[in-house]
């Protein structure tokens, strides 16, 4: 074995030409490791020797250098050597080694090697490399050149590319060293152009790939630094000044993989624009000869760059990714709009190098894509078009008709089409050119040249387009009604009428106007004529869809009277001119169906109805219809079914319903409507027809229809409501109808519906035996269930008690129980049917307690117990006079089986009612004896089960264990209600609660029941042990508060409130003292702080009688403790909020007992809450601010008499509240940000400021200073007069100036910002402060301000205050 005797032997071994130095002996790394670990082996500067050898191995390639780079032994030894300080620190000899041994080649070689190994190996290596570089890198970075750092940066990017998955902390720290040093070196580099050329040539693809992979996450700082480093290298001032380098960059960018570069282009362009904007002062400097506008030059330069980016998207290799190309193009255009780069100077420019040329090229490309029909990229193309509209509407103004024409055949499912139309409509609304938009839409619809496919397909595409969708047409109607000037109304109406008349003549063939559509089609005999008819009809349909919206929505009332008369006359004449065409087309359809004729007729009928609605506003009603037209419509309904012509049938029915002259025709029309509904129409048409009847004509049908017709209508509605195969929209419509009050107010329809329900449930009349009930269950149970399902939504006021008793009370079929019992419970609970409750209450209650197959269902138990509670309450009320039935009920609980969940739930409800509403002495003696026997029986039966449960402490909370705990708790309550107290009563609450709360898998419901048992155990505890039991209650409460969720804490809060309010003063005093001592002794980091403060709040909220002195001691002790210990005000967020809840409960809920001694402590606490802090929470606590404002507001409103004595404190708090509304400006340095953030409380995150709601709350607080209130105290005034209401305006007038000055200084602080919307919300409160000040105070405030900006702000604020101030004139 190789033995090293001297240090020369050690050095000789390391410098040996072979490894190992001696065959079959230890390797050099083993020798170095052994020598380093052997402290007894002395070698001068041993660490320096090993480090020098290590660097030499890697740099000079001596030995297996590549193996050494991945050898963890090598890096662990190097780390031990350079991190030691014995005998000499490494800092004394490392600089000398690193001065002759460059570190960058080692790191580059390491990263290149790690790219080829698996994840486990490079993770192990980098775990050791990272701390080594943390020591070596700062020393060697001073002599690193920018070129070398760029090579290292490129190696790290290649390493990231090889590891596509998310990197862990070690490679990110290594990258942080490299990227930070490269950025620092490049910032001071004098050869930036050379570095740029190298970066673009060798690094750009890898940089783009790494940035694209991490841009969506930015989880690590190294990801952001990589992107920032590349941006600084590509877009620094020297590069931006040289256009040739810019061309080189775009040439290299175009060679990057399309799938990688396209998603990254918008981000890159945004950074490019930001760089130009940042350096625009140097790039576009002004001089005396060339006076350029830097803003315009910046826009032109950014647009020129945009064109270069857009050229990349036009390359042939990107044709395989059309959707990505369009999405990128849209994102680039959004950035043009975001930075307001386009100023319209390129409009009409024909120069191929101009801005207008390439934008025009984009528009032409968009039109070409849209002209190819609807494809998967249509949505993205429309997004691009919407971006162009946002940039400048004038860009697409000339081609708007072409765009609208293409939108006429693009489905409304393309969401971006609505975005585009919304933008177009917004522009015309703002410019008050709605008439122009309407005329363009009408022109496009009326100038259709050709359509593809048959008439049905073309009609479906056109009617389902975004342009004719109701969502868009509704907005057009609103715009026409609200924003169409009166001077344009006449032109729009006349042009719409003229367009429809022209299209109507084209369809009817003006040369043969007397020939019907059917004869015209037959006589043509050519396919071309049919195609022309199809196009003409489609034109009319599209134009009429727009025209009817316009004609029905324009505000004729707003125009001059002479113009109004002309418009109304034109509408009447136009309506009359439609009758001949409608008459001929209806007769044609009665003889032979034709799709084109149907569309034509439906369009004209819609137009006619829209005109009738407009004319109805200026007449007593709708005008009579021509008799021949009415007869033609009825003939059409008789000859055509709704399934064959659904749309036209719907329009004909609506037109006929508007006006019918006599009852005979009324009845016939209702028959036709019902036949249309009952004739299996298409689901969509049936929905539209039923929707029209429900929301428009139901009252008319109720008035006109016969009883038989109403029964048929009700039958149709019930069938749709109950039939499983009925379409969902129809079922929902019927459900909405049955929930409408308007429907139930229709007397005839209501009678028909209730009669129908009586018929459906008639099988229940007179049923007595269980056998007969089961017989009807198998045959007609579904109809009965459907009837009661409907009654669940029916208003109970329209139902009779006899129907409920005689029918619902007889059902016990399991399938109907949930529905029927829910119905009965709702009816009996909502109406005062005392007789129904008293009648057979006992038998009904016994019936409800039967065990059925569905007894385990939670919903069934809940509904059944809810109904049973009504009967139990009735029996208890009746038992005060006659207790015979109540005794029988009590006996049923004694005989109940343990598994009967419904019975024991009924027992629990009975005990709850007894505890809340009765005392034992109110009942006859026989009832009291029955209750005592029940208590004894239940205790003997439940005690063994409770013992077993306490030993097992189940976690899952089965229904049986939950019911057992609840029943035992109610038994305890019942015994206390009777006054029964046993000295040796077993106490299970403490054991159960502690065992269950310690197990995280324990059901919350079991913990709640166990805690209730613990509280009841206290009442049975011996007097000597009551204090200990109270301490246990507090301890268990804290335990549950810490380990359970809000559901448990809310329930135990209610239980604790009731428990403490029932204590004696002595017991309550002990509980208060225990909580106070715990608060004074609790540790700062303890999790018990928040539960203790919350429990103190509960103790203060509902104390027992005659304990006011104890409560005052509790409050004062708590306030002193909060002020004495800083973690109550600067600790965790939960602790601070519970402290504020305590103060809020004190000031808002119990203001009458508030003392001046407490008020000083409250102001001190709020001041500490709002003072500045150097550390801040991760998020701003908005609830904290609202709580502080609520406390101050409660004091001002309710205890003005005490606040007057502490006015300076109030002024200080208001100043602090105004100052914490600020936030630091963007792009501040570290010290500047610290100046602002250190003035904010710990619960305010500097970069997450308060918003509008907080501004409103603070303004309301300031306004409360001028609100007149009467102090809420228990002191009785000596005079008989009512105390006078006063405000704090006069006492606070001397302090208002300081509060106002805080706001003015905040607004003018150069380091802070206060959003405009927050300032607007604060104005009412500031005006209230101004109102409390007099002119002298205002002048003194103005004189105290040294800054001109502060004086200007005060002057403007006071002027606004004077403008809005009421001076009593009017």
TrEMBL record:
Pfam families: Urb2. InterPro entries: Urb2/Npa2_C. This is Nucleolar 27S pre-rRNA processing Urb2/Npa2 C-terminal domain-containing protein. It comes from the Eukaryota. Residues 1138-1369 form the Nucleolar 27S pre-rRNA processing Urb2/Npa2 C-terminal domain. Residues 1-19 have a biased composition (Polar residues). Residues 1-26 are annotated as: Disordered.
């Amino acid at each position: 074995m190789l033995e090293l005797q001297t240090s020369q032997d050690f050095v000789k071994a390391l410098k040996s030409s072979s490894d190992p130095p001696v065959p079959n002996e230890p390797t050099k790394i083993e020798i170095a490791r052994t020598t380093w670990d052997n402290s007894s082996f002395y070698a001068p500067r041993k660490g320096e020797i090993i480090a020098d050898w290590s660097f030499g191995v890697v740099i000079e390639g001596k030995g297996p250098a590549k193996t050494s780079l991945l050898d963890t032994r090598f890096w662990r030894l190097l780390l031990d050597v350079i991190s030691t300080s014995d005998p000499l620190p490494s800092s004394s000899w490392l600089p000398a080694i690193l001065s002759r041994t460059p570190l960058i080649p080692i790191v580059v070689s390491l990263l290149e090697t790690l790219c080829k190994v698996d994840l486990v190996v490079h993770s192990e290596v980098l775990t050791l490399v990272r701390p080594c570089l943390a020591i070596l890198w700062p020393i060697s970075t001073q002599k690193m050149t920018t070129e070398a750092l760029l090579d290292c940066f490129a190696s790290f990017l290649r390493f990231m590319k090889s590891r596509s998955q998310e990197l862990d902390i070690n490679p990110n720290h290594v990258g942080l060293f490299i990227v930070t040093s490269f950025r620092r070196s490049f910032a001071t580099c004098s050869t930036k152009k050379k570095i740029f050329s190298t970066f673009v040539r060798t690094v750009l693809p890898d940089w783009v790939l790494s940035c694209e992979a991490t841009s969506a996450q930015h989880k690590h700082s190294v990801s952001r630094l990589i992107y920032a480093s590349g941006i600084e290298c590509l877009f620094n001032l020297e590069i931006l000044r040289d256009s040739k380098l810019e061309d080189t960059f775009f040439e290299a960018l175009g060679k990057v993989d399309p799938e990688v570069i396209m998603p990254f282009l918008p981000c890159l362009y945004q950074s490019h624009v930001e760089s130009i904007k940042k350096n625009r002062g140097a790039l576009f400097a002004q001089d005396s000869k060339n006076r350029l506008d830097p803003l315009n030059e910046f826009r032109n330069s950014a647009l020129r760059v945009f064109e270069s980016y857009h050229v990349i998207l036009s390359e042939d290799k990107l044709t395989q990714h059309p959707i990505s190309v369009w999405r990128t193009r849209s994102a680039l255009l959004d950035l043009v709009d975001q930075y307001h780069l386009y100023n319209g100077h390129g409009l009409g420019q024909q120069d191929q190098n101009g801005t207008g040329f390439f934008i025009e090229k984009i528009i032409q490309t968009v039109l070409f894509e849209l002209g190819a029909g609807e494809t998967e990229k249509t949505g993205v193309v429309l997004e691009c078009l919407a971006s162009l509209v946002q940039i400048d509407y004038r860009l697409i103004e000339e081609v708007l008709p072409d765009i609208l024409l293409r939108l006429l055949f693009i489905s409304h499912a393309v969401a971006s089409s609505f975005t585009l139309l919304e933008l177009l409509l917004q522009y015309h609304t703002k410019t008050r050119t709605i008439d122009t938009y309407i005329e363009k839409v009408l022109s496009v619809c009326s100038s259709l040249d050709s359509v593809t496919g048959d008439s049905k397909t073309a009609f479906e595409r056109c009617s389902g387009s975004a342009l004719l969708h109701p969502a868009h047409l509704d907005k057009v109607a609103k715009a026409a009604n609200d924003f169409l000037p009166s001077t344009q109304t006449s032109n729009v109406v006349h042009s719409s009428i003229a367009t429809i008349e022209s299209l109507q003549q084209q369809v009817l063939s003006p040369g043969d106007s007397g020939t019907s559509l059917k004869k015209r089609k037959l006589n043509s005999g050519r396919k071309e004529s049919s195609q022309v008819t199809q196009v003409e009809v489609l034109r009319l349909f599209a134009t009429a869809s727009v025209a009817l919206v316009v004609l029905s929505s324009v505000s004729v009332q707003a125009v001059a009277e002479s113009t109004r008369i002309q418009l109304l006359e034109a509408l009447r004449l136009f309506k009359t001119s439609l009758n001949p065409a409608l008459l001929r087309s209806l007769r044609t359809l009665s003889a032979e169906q034709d799709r084109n004729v149907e569309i034509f007729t439906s369009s004209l009928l819609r137009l006619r109805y829209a005109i009738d609605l407009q004319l109805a506003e200026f007449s007593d009603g709708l005008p009579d219809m021509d008799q021949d037209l009415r007869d033609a419509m009825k003939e059409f309904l008789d000859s055509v079914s709704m399934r064959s012509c659904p749309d036209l049938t719907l329009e004909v029915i609506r037109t006929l319903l508007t006006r019918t002259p006599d009852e005979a025709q009324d009845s016939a029309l209702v028959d036709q409507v019902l036949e249309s509904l009952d004739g299996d129409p298409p689901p969509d048409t049936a929905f539209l027809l039923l929707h029209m009847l429900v929301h428009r004509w139901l009252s008319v049908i109720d008035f006109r229809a016969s009883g038989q017709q109403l029964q048929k209508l009700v039958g149709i509605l019930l069938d749709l409501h109950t039939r499983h195969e009925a379409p969902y929209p129809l079922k929902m419509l019927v459900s909405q109808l049955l929930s409408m009050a308007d429907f139930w107010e229709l007397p005839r329809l209501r009678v028909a519906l209730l009669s129908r329900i009586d018929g459906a449930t008639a099988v229940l009349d007179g049923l007595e035996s269980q056998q007969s009930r089961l017989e009807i269950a198998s045959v007609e149970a579904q109809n009965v269930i459907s009837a009661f399902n409907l009654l669940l939504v029916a208003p109970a006021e329209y139902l009779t008690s006899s129907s409920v008793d005689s029918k619902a009370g007889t059902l016990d079929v399991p399938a109907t129980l949930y529905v029927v019992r829910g119905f009965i419970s709702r009816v009996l609970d909502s109406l005062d049917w005392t007789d129904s409750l008293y009648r057979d209450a006992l038998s009904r209650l016994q019936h409800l307690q039967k065990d059925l197959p569905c007894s385990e269902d939670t919903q069934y138990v809940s509904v059944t117990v809810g109904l049973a509670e009504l009967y139990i309450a009735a029996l208890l009320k009746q038992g005060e006079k006659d207790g015979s039935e109540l005794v029988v009920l009590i006996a049923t609980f004694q005989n109940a089986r343990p598994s009967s969940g419904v019975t024991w739930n009924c027992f629990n409800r009975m005990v709850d009612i007894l505890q809340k509403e009765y005392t034992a002495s109110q009942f006859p003696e026989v009832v009291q004896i029955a209750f005592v026997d029940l208590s004894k029986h239940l205790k003997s039966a439940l005690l063994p089960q409770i013992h077993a449960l306490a030993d097992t402490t189940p976690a899952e909370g089965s229904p049986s264990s939950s019911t057992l705990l609840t029943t035992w708790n109610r038994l305890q309550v019942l015994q206390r209600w009777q006054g029964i107290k046993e000295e040796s009563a077993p106490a299970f609450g403490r054991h159960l609660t502690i065992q269950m709360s310690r197990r995280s898998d324990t059901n919350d419901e079991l913990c709640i029941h166990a805690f209730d048992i613990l509280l009841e155990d206290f009442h049975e505890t011996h007097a000597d042990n009551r204090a200990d039991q109270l301490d246990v209650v507090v301890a268990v409460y804290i335990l549950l508060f810490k380990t359970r969720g809000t559901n448990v804490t809310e329930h135990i809060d209610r239980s604790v409130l009731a428990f403490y309010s029932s204590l004696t003063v002595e017991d309550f005093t002990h509980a208060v003292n225990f909580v106070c001592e715990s608060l004074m002794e609790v540790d700062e980091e303890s999790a018990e702080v928040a539960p203790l403060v919350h429990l103190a709040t509960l103790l203060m909220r509902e104390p027992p009688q005659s304990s006011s002195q104890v409560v005052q001691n509790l409050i004062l002790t708590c306030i002193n403790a909060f002020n004495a210990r800083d973690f109550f005000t600067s600790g965790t967020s939960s602790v601070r909020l519970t402290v504020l809840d305590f103060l809020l409960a004190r000031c808002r809920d119990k203001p009458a007992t508030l003392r001046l001694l407490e008020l000083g402590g409250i102001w001190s606490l709020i001041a500490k809450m709002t003072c500045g802090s150097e550390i801040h929470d991760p998020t701003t606590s908005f609830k904290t601010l609202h709580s502080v404002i609520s406390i101050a507001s409660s004091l001002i409103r309710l205890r003005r008499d005490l606040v007057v004595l502490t006015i300076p404190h109030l002024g200080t708090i208001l100043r602090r509240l105004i100052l914490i509304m600020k936030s630091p400006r963007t792009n501040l340095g570290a010290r500047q940000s610290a100046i602002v953030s250190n003035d904010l409380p710990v619960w305010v995150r500097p970069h997450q400021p308060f918003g509008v709601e907080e501004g409103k709350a603070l303004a309301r607080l300031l306004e409360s200073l001028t609100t007149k209130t009467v102090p809420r105290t228990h002191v009785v005034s000596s005079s008989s007069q009512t105390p006078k209401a006063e405000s704090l305006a006069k006492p606070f007038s001397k302090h208002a100036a300081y509060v106002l000055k805080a706001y003015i200084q905040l607004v003018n602080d150069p380091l802070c910002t206060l959003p405009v919307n927050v300032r607007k919300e604060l104005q009412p409160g500031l005006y209230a402060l101004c109102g409390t000040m007099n002119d002298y105070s205002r002048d003194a405030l103005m004189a105290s301000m040294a800054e001109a900006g502060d004086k200007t702000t005060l002057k403007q604020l006071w002027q606004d205050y004077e403008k809005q101030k009421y001076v009593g004139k009017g």
